[in-house]
UniProtKB/TrEMBL annotation:
<feature type="transmembrane region" description="Helical">
    <location>
        <begin position="174"/>
        <end position="191"/>
    </location>
</feature>
<feature type="transmembrane region" description="Helical">
    <location>
        <begin position="197"/>
        <end position="216"/>
    </location>
</feature>
<keyword id="KW-0812">Transmembrane</keyword>
<feature type="transmembrane region" description="Helical">
    <location>
        <begin position="58"/>
        <end position="78"/>
    </location>
</feature>
<feature type="transmembrane region" description="Helical">
    <location>
        <begin position="131"/>
        <end position="153"/>
    </location>
</feature>
<keyword id="KW-1133">Transmembrane helix</keyword>
<feature type="region of interest" description="Disordered">
    <location>
        <begin position="248"/>
        <end position="267"/>
    </location>
</feature>
<dbReference type="GO" id="GO:0016020">
    <property type="term" value="C:membrane"/>
</dbReference>
<feature type="transmembrane region" description="Helical">
    <location>
        <begin position="90"/>
        <end position="111"/>
    </location>
</feature>
<dbReference type="GO" id="GO:0004252">
    <property type="term" value="F:serine-type endopeptidase activity"/>
</dbReference>
<keyword id="KW-0472">Membrane</keyword>
<feature type="transmembrane region" description="Helical">
    <location>
        <begin position="17"/>
        <end position="38"/>
    </location>
</feature>
<protein>
    <recommendedName>
        <fullName>DUF1751-domain-containing protein</fullName>
    </recommendedName>
</protein>
<dbReference type="InterPro" id="IPR035952">
    <property type="entry name" value="Rhomboid-like_sf"/>
</dbReference>
Length: 276
């Protein structure tokens, strides 16, 4: 969509499954009117009611229509990571990030909520409900994958935005990744109220930090792979152009042909006739 890769879900079964899940399941949940089952407040959901299953369900999907669309577009664009890593490695990283952030985000928010309880104007009763409400959605996972996208995926083209005549602002240069960053910005500020927006920002920050730690191998887990998993389409191979893992088809009949050549960016297609 925003990168010069072949369109569709060729050799990306994990990305295809995630996009379908993020678009279909929220509709079913909305029709069933059970969105409340995916919200999370440490108190009372965990400490008083003992609903510990919410720890691993609040990141399953977005329930807001706009955020659901943005999340699906981001996962679709991140499919290039699956092509470079291979399906097994890509899914393994997602599971590691999912488990860690599902525990780390509500734990940090509860510590923050407890600290704020001592400030004037806040309820200091330990049995009072948590101030932060975690809105459903894998925001932390998206930001962790954004770290890999930022470091691994090269910039394809750049463009400049010129200010209006007489403006004091200078020309600003952007890359093709700008469109992904705009979607990420919208996902980070999700929530019906201030408490949800702050919780979403904290979730984004923790996901970004964990993504950096995993990418730099500052914490263990980068070498872990899902056992007995056969993606049935792609595997990782060495790629000298990127310095990372790329994929190739396990089937000789799926070698690239002229129809598999990635499409050029729209700007390149428009200006191609005017080039010497």
């Amino acid at each position: 969509m925003f990168t010069t890769t072949s369109s569709g879900f060729k050799d990306t079964p994990v990305s295809k499954a995630l996009v379908m899940f993020l678009t279909i399941v929220p509709v079913l949940v909305s029709l069933s009117q059970v969105q409340y089952l995916f919200d999370l407040k440490v108190n009372p959901h965990l400490t008083q009611w003992g609903q510990w299953w919410r720890v691993f369900t609040w990141q399953l999907m977005y329930t807001s229509q706009s955020t659901c669309l943005f999340g699906a577009l981001l996962v679709y664009n991140f499919r290039v990571l699956e092509r470079l890593m291979g399906s097994r490695k890509y899914l393994s990283h997602i599971l590691i990030i999912y488990v860690f952030t599902s525990i780390a985000v509500p734990s940090f928010l509860q510590i923050l909520s407890f600290s704020w309880s001592f400030l004037p104007g806040f309820n200091s009763d330990p049995k009072a409900p948590s101030w932060f409400l975690l809105a459903p959605g894998p925001t932390a996972v998206v930001f962790a994958l954004l770290v890999w996208y930022y470091h691994i995926i090269p910039i394809v083209y750049k463009f400049k935005v010129s200010p209006s005549h007489g403006s004091q602002w200078k020309k600003t240069e952007f890359s093709d990744k700008l469109f992904v960053y705009i979607l990420v910005f919208n996902v980070a500020f999700q929530g019906p109220g201030l408490s949800s927006i702050i919780a979403s920002l904290v979730s984004s920050l923790i996901g970004w930090i964990f993504g950096i730690l995993l990418y730099t191998e500052a914490i263990p887990g980068r070498g872990w792979r899902i056992p007995l998993y056969n993606p049935g389409g792609t595997r990782a191979v060495s790629s000298g152009s990127f310095g990372i893992d790329a994929h190739r088809s396990d089937s000789p009949s799926e070698n690239m042909d002229e129809n598999d050549i990635p499409a050029q960016p729209l700007a390149s297609q428009l200006f191609q006739p005017f080039r010497a």
